[in-house]
Amino acid sequence: MGCGCGHEVRGGFCANCSRELLYLTALRYCPRCGVTVGEGIHADEDGCFECPSTMPRFGQLIRVSPYAAPLRQAIIRMKYRRASNIARYVSNLLAEAVGAHCDVDSIDLILPVPMHWLRRLGRGWNHSAVLADGVSGRLGIPLGDELIRVRNTPPQVRLPASLRQGNVRGAFAVTSPAGIRGAHILLIDDVLTTGATANEAARTLLAAGASQVTVAVSAKSEAPTAYSRQISGAEIA
Fold first, then answer.
1. Please, are residues 195 and 187 in contact by the beta-carbon 8 Å criterion?
2. CB-CB contact of 191 with 217 (8 Å)
3. What tens digit of pLDDT does each residue of 127-144 get?
4. In the chain, where are the structural domains located?
5. 230 pLDDT exceeds 50?
6. N or C: which end of the chain has fewer CB within 10 A?
7. What is the pLDDT of residues 53-112, one digit of tens each?
8. Is residue 235 predicted with pLDDT exceeding 60?
């Protein structure tokens, strides 16, 4: 289903891809920026050596795995082919990650990173909203819609890292500050690359009165060398 390998599938991926996903989800990562960190490298709630000099507005980053096969293929199929069955599977993985790395009882509200209505019209759905709905149902946390996108910005994937923060500046707004005032928000998205979008969304929520923002994503995009395996001195991705 999710991996598209054509082999027998149990759950969401074939046996080979399930083993690879198990390896990837077990990797240590920084809870502030989400990058994979090796054994013996310090990383805690204050960050790691890879964190940007200006720390993100959100307090914690939770991920399922690096943006690599087999999860990468599943996210692409979910995002661009409107594969609702894959979205349900990925949302279950994301809910499990949140439950493992966060005090779920402290979260008051789940919000998806919103999509501008023009892009949603063209794509046919907001995959982040579908993921957020699945996580909400799995964890029993209310799902809100207070965060909206007010600027139809160019896709971040088309821009160099140096321009991404400026691209999303002022892109979000909160429709009902009373609904998030004092709340611990779990913000859901599919993939985090530089973190510019999640950071701007968190900044908007905190400015509107939220007490804390935790970001949860299906995958963190990073160089393959960050998560490749070391076997007999040779790297294999």
1. no
2. yes
3. 999 999 999 999 999 999
4. 9-48+56-225
5. no
6. C
7. 888 999 999 999 999 999 999 999 998 888 889 999 999 999 999 999 999 999 999 999
8. no
Q: What pLDDT was estimated at residue 79?
A: 87
List pLDDT tens digits, range 209-226.
999 999 999 999 998 888
**Fold of the domain spanning 9-48+56-225:** Rossmann fold (3.40.50)
CA distance 235 to 224: 10
The verdict on whether omega for the bond into residue 70 sits within 30 degrees of 0, i.e. cis, is yes
- Helix (H) or strand (E) holding 186, with range, is strand 184-192
Predicted pLDDT at 225: 82
Centre a 10 Å sphere on the Cβ of residue 40 and count the other Cβ atoms it contains: 6
Total number of residues shown for the chain: 237
Q: Which residues pair with 10 in a beta bridge?
A: 13
Report long-range pairs for 157-166 (Cβ below 8 Å, ≥24 apart).
Answer: 157/193, 161/193, 161/194, 164/193, 164/194, 164/196, 164/197, 165/194, 165/196, 165/199, 165/200
Q: Which residues of 171-187 are buried (b: 16+ CB within 10 A; e: fewer)?
A: bbebeeeebbeebbbbb
Close Cβ partners of 1 (under 8 Å, ≥ 6 residues apart) = 9, 12, 13, 85, 86, 89
Do residues 196 and 154 make contact, with C-beta atoms less than 8 angstroms apart? no
Q: Count Cβ neighbours within 10 Å for each residue of 54-91 and write b for 16 or more, e otherwise.
A: eebbbbbbbbbbbbbbbbbbbbbbbbeeebeebbbbbb
